[in-house]
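Design a sequence for this backbone.
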């Protein structure tokens, strides 16, 4: 079994076409336009020049497809939180936030919302299980888990300026 073969072709005035031939010899292409629009095309196995399917997507739809194809956050050993009525989200902390430079414990996040902050992303680093003495900084992204209502309340608290 060979690896997938890919190529990139500039399309002046349109964007860039990316072609992929899979190990099963199926041809796929993506035309990427400067505005973020993508057209995904799949070609017939018996005639690689005959397009069997073409799907045009806006930038958000294309990002959702990429997320589904590259599920780094999915694993059979991970807890499926939605089945339990929980959500996990990222909440950004702005540089003008009231909490910039303050301790995580000062937010009273768990007491006020029932939400747990399970990690903080800072620059290219993940800081798991921050304690109450963890000092927040503008630009941090907090990974939180809780009920939908709790996560919404946490976002409101963390958005305070």
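Sequence:
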């Amino acid at each position: 079994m060979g690896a997938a073969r890919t190529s990139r072709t500039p399309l002046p005035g349109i964007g860039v076409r990316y072609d992929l031939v899979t190990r099963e010899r199926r041809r796929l292409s993506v035309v990427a336009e400067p505005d973020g629009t993508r057209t995904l095309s799949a070609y017939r196995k018996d005639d690689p020049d005959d397009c069997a399917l073409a799907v045009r997507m806006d930038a958000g739809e294309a990002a959702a497809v990429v997320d589904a194809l590259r599920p780094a956050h999915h694993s059979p050993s991970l807890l499926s939180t939605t089945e339990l009525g929980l959500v996990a989200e990222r909440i950004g902390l702005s540089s003008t936030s009231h909490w910039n430079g303050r301790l995580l414990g000062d937010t009273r996040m768990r007491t006020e919302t029932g939400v747990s902050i399970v990690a903080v992303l800072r620059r290219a680093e993940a800081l798991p299980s921050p304690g109450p003495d963890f000092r927040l900084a503008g630009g941090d992204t907090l990974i939180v888990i809780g009920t939908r209502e709790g996560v919404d309340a946490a976002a409101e608290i963390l958005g305070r300026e």
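Confidence is low (pLDDT under 50) at residues 75-79.
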